[in-house]
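Database export, one record per block. Field names are fixed; values are copied verbatim from the stored entry.
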Amino acid sequence: MASLSQDRLVRKEVALGMIREFEPPQDHIGTRLFAPFQSVESDDVIFQYSQGLTAGLAPARAEDAESELARKDFTLGEGRASILDWALKDHYSASDVTRYREAVYLAGQVPESLPLTVRSMTEDFQAKLARDTRIRRRKLDNRIEWLIMSALSAGSVTYDDGTIKFTVDYGRPNAQNTGNLLGGASATPWSSTSSDPIGDILAVKEYMYDTYNVTVDRALVSQKIVNNMLKSDKFTNSLIGSNPLYTVTGWGVDAARQIIRQATDMDFIVYDSVYRTKPWGSNTITNNRFFPQDKMLFLPSAASVNNVDDAIGFGKTLTSPHPEGNWQSGFYAWEQDTKDPWGYDVGNGIKAFPVLPHLDMTYLLKVI
């Protein structure tokens, strides 16, 4: 090998890297805020959840009579979850693997005068494996985020890839799921000068408290909804005009958010993350939102969720063990390089599905 002339080596092209375009935000909040991971031992899970104790009135008794026995009437719900396996892999052809291993051999046998191209080949392949692993993991994260946000925004998850097809209805009452105002009336777009954002928000808060004894103090919204609050004359005139601070310092999105928080006791979770898709062989990229841009989801307060006395709380993403993960729950990985035709497969997956038994504590409102 030491006497091998350099011009007999197969010449290789060197890729310096990849130029990436600016990508929209892809921060995931589903498992962080709404349905954190919870490990279970089986793919089929049966669970019970409490819908709260009734607190009635104590009866009177005669002076010499014994008191009545208190009755504890639990209202229980029962659910069943089937955890699905989400996975994908990359296949590297025999020529990819062969050239890489030849380059590794050459880099270890020939003198240091060997062209840099061979050494960079060994490094490039390892970088490609790492990059592909990050992409697969991102797609798995996107799928879990899609499951959670689909349940929150639509009250159901519908999946159809041509092979597997299912629909899961999480049971949010239709009156709270259509996006309309109370009584079935369509919401006035908040970009209209005749709209009343604060009045709409307070009406939903009152309805949820009167119906379920639930205090809603958070809302999942897009930046566009927050921006549209500025366009309502009823909102701006009634609030800015009566507040000298904002008259002096000017009006903007941050000021609008602070004022509406004070007026409604609501915090806004501004969420505009997307995942990107394109048809196979096409150069057209589509940004797909995890949560609709035109809808506002009212969420129960932490105190209201704590009143739900069960192991699930507002929601959990159940995840079960997999043999490739050493029978541990969560993400797993595998490698395979022994089958014919000789190639190399690397994959990642997770067995998971969100459970959200208390979507009756949420309200969806269409405001654009």
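Remark 1: The mean pLDDT is 77.
Remark 2: The chain has one domain: 24-52+75-366.
End of record.
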